[in-house]
Amino acid sequence: MLAQQMVNGVLLGATYALFALGFTLIFGVLRVINLTYGFYFSAGAFIALYLTRVLGLNIVLALPLGTIAAGLVAVAMDSLLLPRLRHRRTAELDSLMVTLGAVLALYSIMTAWLGPDIRRFPPGTISADALEILGVRLTAAEGLILLASFVLVAALMALMKFTRLGLAIRALAEKPDAAGLMGINVPATSRIVSFLSGALAGAGGILIGLNFNAIQPYMGESMMLRGFVVIIVGGMGDSRGALVAGLALGIIEVLTAGYIDSGLKETVAFAILVVVLWTRPQGLFGRAVGQRA
Amino acid sequence: MASSLKISGLEVAYGRTDAVRGIDIDVPAGRVVCLIGANGAGKTSTMRAISGLKRPRAGRILLDGADIVGMKPHQIAALGLLQVPEGRQVFAELSIADNLALGAYLVRDAAEQARRLESVLARFPRLRERLGQAAGSLSGGEQQMLALGRALMGGPKVLLLDEPSMGLAPLFVDEIFAIVSDLKREGTTILLVEQNASAALEVSDDAYVLENGRIVLSGQASDVAENPSVAAAYLGG
Lengths: 293, 237
Prior knowledge:
Chain A is mainly α.
């Protein structure tokens, strides 16, 4: 029982980590709090739904295509909203307000267009077979979620650490002006960061959609609340912190639901957030944002 | 190899505040030219305009005769006009090796990168032992060496040095100016902005004195150094 709960927790936590990683990436690099980020989560799920339902694509194809499409949506929206905010003295607060307005508008448009009902992937999107190892059940969907989360996180980490683009992104995160002096194309690199973050959100949306087989326009909103918990607990802009905190949140939610009461899982998540903000506002792993600048 | 830089009628403004009010500076190929002046005279605004970080209100900035006004910082860097910015601006969280790699960001050829790294490390041996350390762990003087080394990694055709001696211990100040003299001997074109006027005038061929956004005096560095008003205002009598 505990083993099964842990597996379910890791599954949920892996998608939280994936989602939070993109959120913390865009904050860490562009120094804006981008609330439209939750929309890219919903967008990814709906694009994958369209690809499987209307075009009849296999989920193994729909997942990467939906991920890329969500990244492109993010590039378009971020290019529209963020550049004029980034250079303001109060960029963090201004971006919070502007993107809050934008995301509410986006959700409304999406709901007006697609309706508020919960949609499901067509039957047979993914095999219903399950693997049973030592009494722990793992369905094909769950296997795909684990694999995709792992691959995406590892790919992002490798990109940041070992490639020329990753070096440029890390330089841009620390000192945008100095990065420009090095010959880094700052606007273009910022768009790539938007793409990467939107793609992670989109992948998260598709995977959560698969996990619960429920897709609706506002699904990104409840995810954003968790995204905030994860990046604040992990330390804003800290990707390793986001991974650890994301996994932990998933496990805590599943264990709370399993052993205490499923109605309490969000209470526990936010209680953790409040305690962390009281005691370690810079996050469990991170340094204060002010100290990074 | 070395290029020339010519600035004419440059004006830089922040809102309604005029920082630079129409200046002309000529940096011929292979020469070291210094721009001296007090805090707030407009030195850093001039540098930011040259490197494309601040769009000037008017004027022309010619690199080998071609106007670069309106180009983005990365495009200007790609032309070989490389800046060591005020306050060093090293990437404190990145390793020294990464900082140097960023200096050669536009150099695609790995063999050329390695060659430049070797020559920079020969010039700054202190950096060699600490390549894996975060740049933020270096002292101010060492960070200035790193910032200089980072610019040299890019193979500058014109090197802009903004206050390289600011806030450094005297020993490091001497070392920085010794390196500037070396670079001068090697034929690098340098525009040097300094508050430390005596050291700057000593190493430069030509000098410009900036006050309230205007050039009030210019000429050969040795002549400028002997000007009584410069001596009184910048050289401590």
